[in-house]
Write a structure and sequence with these properties.
The protein is mainly beta. Helix content is 12%, strand content 55%. β3 and β4 form a beta hairpin. The chain is globular.
Amino acid sequence: MKFPSLTKSHAGRVTLAAVPVGVVAALLLGGVAQGQVPVSFAVSGSQFQISASQLEGTGFSQYAGVATDSEGGEHTVAIANIKSATLSDLCQSVITETPLGTVGVLIKAGGGDNPASASDLQIGMTGLAGDASFGNIRIGVDASTVQTDAKGTGGDFAQDADTVSIANLQQTAWSTQASVFTLTGMTLELTDGSTPCF
């Protein structure tokens, strides 16, 4: 859906420019947190959706954490770390309320035989669905001793695994970051918010 009314004013053009830039920046920011999400940036006031037909990863850990927004609000999240990951048919969507109405951003990548890929991927999520399998999983380890570079707080519950595979991934998150995120065949579409990933 197009937004002709948004492009007729200076405020509308600023809104259209700011929304996708902010989303892409949040997706591509580098660095890996140590026990808390995020390290160097405050999360926005909106959660977003991520989906993929298949995720394959090595070097996995998961534990509890906190995402802090720009106003100091804290949001409980499950932090998932994956050292190296590929994501087939990747989709990310976010809906933002602007002074000129609801605007959605829909990003797709990794279609066909060219999945998106990420190194040192870390996600601060509140929901996850899919068909998952883990190789050499350890459940109930201390979060400060997980076998990934990023670790949680001592005494907290955690799990880790050598490999992770998730089919039909659907995820709701506050933040995603990676040292490198390669979005093959990326497209970005501005919508009216009616076409989320799931």
